[in-house]
Design a protein that fits this description.
- By secondary structure, this protein is of the alpha+beta class.
- Helices cover 19% and strands 27% of the residues.
- It has a domain of 83 residues: Aldehyde Oxidoreductase, domain 3, CATH 3.90.1170.10.
- It has 2 helices and 7 strands; from the N terminus they run ββαββββαβ.
- The longest helix has 14 residues.
- The protein starts with 31 loop residues before the first strand and ends in a 7-residue tail after the last strand.
């Protein structure tokens, strides 16, 4: 009889986020953007914290676009509950993000302000990110 394969990761049934992003991988609205370098689940609270950090640094100048939306419900059962009795209640909402996906976009601010605002926003996220600039951006 074959033994089941034991893996290091416990979340095997939840699904893995593999591959690179095929959509949302170029700047659509802004001149500066924040691009992911790895795959992960990003929660609604993390998105909101990064939005607040970026807009506070920009002092509400310029425009900010959030290109992801948390539409996946993550459920949990309470502690010390027996097996069965149905699915647990929704604990939080999240979005699965692949590598190469653009999370945030900024326009109508200078390069230095955009770089620092997106750096502050990236510290609130659980993924490694990269600051990108549009091809048609001219430095004065």
């Amino acid at each position: 009889m074959l033994q089941p394969k034991i893996t290091k990761y416990r979340k095997q049934q939840k699904g893995r986020i593999k591959g690179k992003s095929s959509r949302n991988c170029t700047l659509s609205f802004g001149i500066f953007g924040l691009k992911t370098l790895e795959s992960s689940l990003i929660t609604d609270r993390q998105i909101e914290a990064s939005r607040i950090a970026a807009t506070r640094y920009m002092k509400r100048e310029g425009r900010l676009w959030i290109n992801i939306f948390p539409d996946k419900p993550i459920t949990r059962k309470p502690q010390e509950v027996r097996m069965g009795k149905g699915k647990g209640s929704v604990e939080f909402w999240a979005v699965p993000v692949k590598s190469g996906c653009i999370l945030l976009e900024i326009s109508e601010v200078t390069l230095l302000i955009a770089r620092e605002a997106l750096r502050l926003a990236a510290t609130k996220l659980p993924v490694k990110t990269k600051f990108i600039v549009a091809n048609n951006f001219d430095v004065l």
